[in-house]
Amino acid sequence: MRSLALSLAALLVAGACASGSMENADSMAAAPQAQQRPAQPLTDANIAAIVVAANTIDIENGKLALERSGTDNIRRFAQTMITDHSGVNQAAVDLVTKLKVTPVDNATSNGLVESANATRASLRARSGADFDRAYIANEVDYHRAVLSAIDDALIPNAQNAELRALLVSVRPAIAAHLQHAESLKQQVAN
Amino acid sequence: MARSRVPRAIARGAALLLGAILLWGMGGVPSRTHVLRITGFQFVPPRIHVAVGDTLTWVNEDIVPHTATAATGAWDSGTIAAKGRATLVIRAPGRVEYQCALHPTMKGMVVAE
To answer: Which of A91, A180, A183 sits opposite B63 (nearest CB)?
Structure first.
């Protein structure tokens, strides 16, 4: 269930390495997966692909929640995730079209999709309150990881000013989603 | 010198009184329109003082929809599309907290007098 968060954590480490901000060997040892790959700076095309992949993942998770949850609060949250992440994806697509940048899939975006597929398979096996708890716990982990990725890897590596501005404008949405998900996590735990 | 000031003061007072009477005759203080921005998942300004009869216009600068929904249920903007706007007239005095029904972390307050 935490595989997506781990993929994004690996992105943070890769991004930090690419930015030259990794300071000590201990930190590298904590992320052997990232250490084995040569650090490649994220290009704007890579970042675009990661943004689209990350948003699409949460849209699909939201659709699954609408299929499987009967809880009003969870369903409303899921619908908001579908609407908001679709809006972000549309803004990202509009921007890369304008900039004539073609998103380029990369190890991170592919890893995110694979992890999300595994997570959704796990969610599909659940129902009722068990599904609600697992879905919202994953939403908390997902948004927390995306927020860190935006701050520590995507914004620092974005070259184009408009792409960077889009990432900055998306950040409050992710932060608000995280707070909302944390509140719902408390509710479904009781 | 002092004598010439008295008539002028009286005239000024009379003019103000006349203006007030005319305004009252036309239905009171004219209502105003207040524009609030929705940007970065915040209502700006987060708190606003208005008069009953004033109009509030929320302009959504974000790339996702929002609402401005009174916690009391007194009023609701309905969905404000991304880059869209919504307008409503404040009909009653009071201090009303409101939030975005889609994003409950977004909060604001309208104080109507």
So the answer is: A91
